[in-house]
Predict the structure of Ribosome-binding ATPase YchF.
Amino acid sequence: QLSIAIVGLPNVGKSTLFNALTKNDVLAANYPFATIEPNVGVVNLPDPRLTKLAAVFHSERILPATVSFVDIAGIVRGASEGEGLGNQFLANIREADAIAQVVRGFTDDDVVHVEGGVNPKNDLETINAELMLADLQTLERAIPRIEKEVKGKKTDPSVLEAAVAAKDALERGTLLSQSDIELGAIRELGLLTAKPYIYVFNVDEAVLTDAAAKASLEALVAPAHAVFLDAKIESELIDLDPEDAAELLASTGQDESGLDQLARIGFDTLGLQTYLTAGPKEARAWTIGKGWKAPQAAGVIHTDFEKGFIKAEVISFDDLIDAGSIVEARSRGKARLEGKDYVMRDGDVVEFRFNN
Ligand code: GDP
């Protein structure tokens, strides 16, 4: 289950966003430290292809891929030293596959800013500094141990090299995800800033259509991805039926909600994609990594599918929709029988053949 940790200073709109995310009514309170328990919300990855697929197969239900979000309690300056909520949030972030940092861009004099004023650059540097300090502590503890292990020939010297390089990068103020260090060797340390990063700018409605304002925020975080949304609008959207929601979105110059964008970009940032299966019971999307081969992809459905893999019948989504039915797609020669070395593509509609 893919999970993304939502972090950010208190009062930046994390709870508001998270409530919209999960359609829960978790209290969004206007004071710091309101979100103390980590909350998990699972959202569907929007995929309009599934509706079309279900129509072709007369499927009873649709099962999209999912992304789960973990709402982490507010981080404040000094968190890595036990300030505010202390270190309890670190373990929750460590377990996530990626980090989405919510940054306040909205102005509202009624909502207290914990650092005294709305300043996105300052805010994201505060959070990143805390995460980098936490990683530095981890490395400072780990390096003497790794040195001993290398001396005793229990660990490869490349592990020590990577750890030292990571420490140097952090001391220079670089997030590990933006360094070119080979981090695979020190994966077991669970370093926070090594995780893929997405920035979520919670901005006033006017900024959503202000390309220049967005570009300058984007420049603060490049090459990481930036998502722009208005958490208040997101929480209104969830209460509307699809037509009214589309109208509200259009009135703010968008064609996709911020949450949908977040799920989609999160998915992409992690190098994931989906393939599709369909039948009278369900039309379904399955999550796999980019570059995965057919047997590994089959294993996501069931380990037996991977072990007993024979072939996969693959039709691209567009070809299937053009043909209008699987029978017609086959007669047009669009159904390919692929073997164990086939590299899966996003949107492949697949039926696996396997031995029990
Ligand atoms: P958290 O501490 O980061 O979880 O922040 P909350 O979601 O609890 O939001 C803090 C306060 O800011 C609440 O009163 C929200 O209603 C308000 N708020 C959140 N997002 C927005 C926004 O986009 N615009 C405005 N004006 N207020 C917001």
